[in-house]
Amino acid sequence: MATTRANASKGVLQGVSLLTEHDIYLFRQGRHFRLYEKLGAHRLTVNGTAGVHFAVWAPNARAVSVVGDFNEWRNDVHPLRQREDDSGIWEGFIPGVTVGAHYKYRLQSHHKNYHVEKADPFAVRTEVPPLTASIVWGLDYAWGDGQWMQQRAQPNALNAPAATYEVHLGSWRRVPEEGNRSLSYRELAVQLTDYVRDMNFTHVELMPITEHPFYGSWGYQTTGYFAPTARYGTPQDFMHLVDRLHQNNVGVILDWVPSHFPTDEHGLVYFDGTYLFEHADPKRGYHPEWNSSIFNYGRHEVRSILNSSALFWLDKYHADGLRVDAVASMLYLDYARKPGEWIANEYGGKEDIQAVQFLRDLNEAVYRDYPDTQTIAEESTAWPMVSRPTYLGGLGFGMKWNMGWMHDTLNYMSLDPVYRKYHHDQLTFSIWYAFHENFVLPFSHDEIVHGKGSLIGKMPGDHWQKLANLRLLFGYMYGHPGKKLLFMGGEFGQWREWNHDRSLDWHLLAHAPHQGIQHWVRDLNRFYRSEPALFTRDFDMSGFEWADLHDWEHSIISFFRNGENPDDVVLVVCNFTPVTHANYRIGVPRDGFWSEALNSDALTYGGSGQGNLGGVEAAPVPAHGRCYSLLLTLPPLGVIYFKAPRAPV
Fold this sequence. Notes:
The protein is of the alpha/beta class. It is built from 15 helices and 31 strands.
């Protein structure tokens, strides 16, 4: 409940602070990683009087006051005091303010006649957009994921299986009977968790849940870097979603956007009447592609605030990782700019040295304090050593999205199979660089919006061939080195391009072909998680070996995935044409029975039923430089996985 007007007469109690001299030192050095414990609105009891301590960074303001439903939104009742240490922080303790109170900061600038009401940058709860007030709130919650948290280093490790389901919470599933509303966090805790567990995914990656004023930005235009969006419930409701996923052994990765922020007046833009969070010069401070402001990474206090946001989600919400959005836009000063529209660094180059330092500091802090989590870079260029330690000169991320593989693969798969043999290198080239970074193979939301069509819509051929091509695409992806990421809807072959205002087309699962694709992805995940050969050496070239990469004429590739144990060997064979190949010979390293573990052309997946009747006995016939070989039947537009017999003692 918000407080009554009577509370407003109590004024502001001065001399109360959560900030120490050490806090201020770290803040101004850009080395404070827990500012959420100091800035914002915090409930306190002072001399027996309960209330809330407010603190906000606004160094260029002439006056700052707290306005809210507890003082009829008057700016003359609760003025804050600026600290005398030149930190630029205004603070004060207001007795009587209680949990649930709505508030903003009223700022008056030294410059011009600038008066503005701002949401609290450190608010942990907000009103439901389009309303913009902050809400006094606590983050108390009785977590039930203790077992997951104690052992999560194993499922989050680089040598563990990672099959991630990317989700936009507002459009995953809706309730048409109730005005097509989105599910709440609590409803998602049941439905999404049960679905992800049934599909055998290891993790979910949530598109940004940080508060954002424009729903159509999908969360990538953030105003509340410490508040989960109120569209689906309270902070505790979101905690419950994470908690239940963890209790079902599903990791949670949060999409996080430190690259830019929107220009909505209540947000961070021109915060105290100056360009505080952003660069003043639009050649540095304005993002032309996204019509948003760019953080000033050279400002120490800004780095402290962003670093604190990152660690906040790991600390308070038990997130297992952060996928950092648009890293390329942070690294390059000329990103999305024409000549003359950008400013070179001090050495005349296009690299943003300050952003590089910010990213390194961020990753060092995450792995220092939460070594059982991961940071993942969405970085689309050839910037070196993105996923290498900072002490080696890298950026320090745990993993990086493999955008090159994604583009080459989708370009190849979109070709009519008759032309694929002329583009064989688009399949084989990725292995040349596959181990330069710790890669994630992403088929994300970005590939099925803005007129790009759905994944199945990109596939060539008639209806049956499109379905077969999609199964082949997924089978190839799960065999290729690298962790896996698939955006929602792709797992059952949604035809329609994703629309954030609509639910996924779950009705398609009434039809057998779409059931078959879903069944295929479920089995791929199950097999992938059970076979160490497919994940333990994802980032080590010893985990991959070509069986044959040269059969461009038939658009066939075959390769081995090797685990740390000699018994862990899987052969993957992909036929990218609609022609069945009988008596196709592939050399293998050992004799014995090679069992057919998965076949995308199986009838249960909607295929034609071509295969090898459960497996093939290796013959002592040399092929591809090996002493033994298999004589296989390769199904049309199909992928087959074979498990090797045990290694000879």
